[in-house]
Write a structure and sequence with these properties.
Blueprint: E1 3-10, H1 14-22, H2 31-34, H3 38-47, E2 51-56, E3 71-74, E4 78-79, E5 94-95, H4 98-110, E6 116-118, H5 125-134, E7 144-150, H6 160-175, E8 182-188, H7 205-217, H8 227-234, H9 241-249, E9 254-266, E10 269-279
Parallel strand pairs: 1-8, 2-7, 2-8, 3-6
Antiparallel strand pairs: 1-10, 3-7, 4-5, 9-10
Helix pairs in contact: 1-5, 4-6, 6-9
The structure holds fe (ii) ion.
């Protein structure tokens, strides 16, 4: 049976990729951010996942405004990055797991989530940078990957509650998978930030800290916000928090916080990282819907 080890959530700002490429991790500006990943590396070395389900939002590399699915999933044997601009180096390809992708697709559609299935899919910085933060150093990726995209770009966006429930459906699907696999769920984006308009540079530390607490112990409390309330509280791009909520929804057992870090700003964004351990509930690893 597949076993959901836990979840990690992290910001995915493009400048992080440039800092990695230039080896700036120990510079004073960057160190408080990159040091926040030491605890992630220690936990990953203990739990050693086989597969990572990466929940993120595409920024125009694979999907553009002409065709933008609310939810999409990759079903490829390999995923490629491409030149996005910003001087970002192109990441090496990521291995997929088509058998698990098709299991998730079948389970999600049966669970009333009509997800767009992509047998070819480019992955952008919201996927590649978190992967590089979790497994730095180059070489072959030690995990297979399943990309799942949530539209946080073109309104109307799915509600926080809908994204949390998508995560729950992903968790149920993983719990029902009969291959012996250790699975990590990764949610990327946020925290509070706004890139444009009169509130460009907006950061809301009290709301970020509230989210970092609630997502561990009381994630349902975050599902009561509307999308527009989330824009007001977290910024126009801070709505990427829904990716974290979907990650949290996928954790079907007893969840505890292993590690976390919050640092402002990187670029003009509040950054956070969180590691959540997921222990199966005794006698019933599958949480009721
Ligand atoms: Fe983003």
């Amino acid at each position: 049976m597949a076993r959901i080890l836990g979840g990690v959530s992290t910001s995915h700002i493009p400048s992080i990729g440039n800092a990695i490429a230039k080896g700036l991790q120990n510079e004073p500006y960057w160190r408080p951010f990159f040091d926040g990943f030491n605890g992630v590396h220690q936990w990953l070395a203990q739990v050693r996942p086989d597969v990572v389900v990466v929940i993120y939002n595409d920024h125009g590399l694979n999907f553009f405004l002409d065709k933008l699915p609310t939810f999409a999933i990759g079903a490829a044997a390999e995923y490629h990055h491409a030149d996005e601009g910003w001087g970002l180096p192109v990441a090496r390809p990521f291995p997929g797991d088509p058998a698990l992708s098709w299991h998730l697709i079948n389970a999600l559609v049966a669970d009333e989530f009509d997800i767009t299935m992509c047998q070819e899919m480019l992955v952008d910085h919201a996927f590649t940078i978190p992967m590089s933060l979790l497994w730095p150093g180059g070489g072959a990726w030690p995990v297979r990957t399943i990309p799942i995209c949530i539209n946080t770009v073109q309104h109307p966006l799915p509600s926080p509650a809908r994204c949390f429930n998508l995560g729950r459906a992903i968790g149920r699907a993983l719990d029902s998978y009969d291959r012996d696999l250790k699975v990590l769920v990764l949610g990327t984006g946020g925290l509070s930030h706004q890139l444009d308009g009169t509130r460009a540079g907006f950061i809301n530390k009290p709301f970020d800290l509230l989210c970092l607490d609630r997502i561990v112990h009381e994630p349902e409390a975050l599902t009561h916000y509307s999308v527009l309330e989330l824009v007001e509280l977290a910024g126009a791009q801070g709505v990427e928090l829904v990716n974290w909520l979907a990650m949290r929804g996928a954790l079907t057992g007893n969840v505890s916080r292993v590690h976390g870090n919050y640092h402002i700003p990187i670029s003009n964004t509040a950054t956070g990282v969180l590691v959540l351990d997921n222990q199966p509930i005794a006698g019933d690893a599958k949480r009721a819907a």
